[in-house]
Specification:
219 residues, two-stranded parallel sheet, mainly alpha
Length: 219
């Protein structure tokens, strides 16, 4: 799920100043925390898309898993030999360099092969996640209005937080409303980040100086 994390860690939550402005007419309840990656991961649209991807690209995924196991089996004796050589008296970095380079080269070749095998599924994942993440700013805004939140933080930014202050599930609920489904077949000329870039251009004129840290847009 590397792509998944890469897509969702691309930006931070909406800036506190934006949240205060959004809730200025409502009663302020206080500070809350939310995990935007978890909100997207728990959405119904992503669950459905993930199942569709696993079905549509089952052959490629199974082939990649088979190759991954074979490569692991192939590398095990090389790694064991390296470890034995490293533990031998008088072993130096120079004496181990050839073995280390051989292992590294084989790993790089294997990773490139696995990436080729999983590319169609990874592309479908990126496309589905981008559609959901594009609505994350709207979902966050709706959730903080509903919960009367004046300041929203990521969980790792808070030294301590009561479970009742976590509004991640509320954001997921809003995502389910805003994005009931997500397609898994991107257009032929689609590239990851296109939707986010278009969204940035659309809202840029109305952005306030406080809104420098935007919610993840799938980049």
């Amino acid at each position: 799920m590397t792509n998944f994390k890469h897509l969702l860690l691309a930006a931070a939550l909406i800036a506190p100043g934006t949240l205060v402005a959004a809730t200025a007419t409502a009663q302020v309840a206080g500070i809350a925390v939310a995990d935007p990656e978890a909100a997207v991961a728990n959405s119904k649209a992503w669950a459905t898309a993930r199942t569709q991807i696993q079905t549509t690209y089952k052959a490629q995924i199974d082939q990649a898993n088979t190759r991954r196991q074979a490569i692991t089996t192939e590398l095990q004796p090389l790694v064991a030999a390296y470890q034995k050589a490293a533990a031998a008296p008088g072993a130096t970095e120079a004496s181990l360099r050839t073995q280390a380079q051989a292992i590294q080269t084989r790993e790089q070749t294997a990773n490139a092969e696995l990436q080729r095998l999983t590319a169609p599924a990874s592309r479908a994942q990126a496309y589905a996640l981008e559609q959901i993440s594009a609505k994350l700013p709207d979902a966050v805004s709706a959730a903080v209005r509903t919960k009367n939140v004046s300041l929203l933080l990521r969980p790792n930014a808070a030294l301590f937080a009561q479970p009742t202050t976590d509004i991640t599930s509320a954001i997921t609920t809003e995502l389910d409303r805003l994005v009931p489904t997500a397609g898994i077949t991107p257009p032929a000329n689609w590239q990851p980040g296109q939707q986010g870039q278009q969204a940035d251009g659309a809202v840029a004129p109305a952005a306030t100086p406080a809104a420098t840290n935007r919610a993840p847009t799938g980049r």
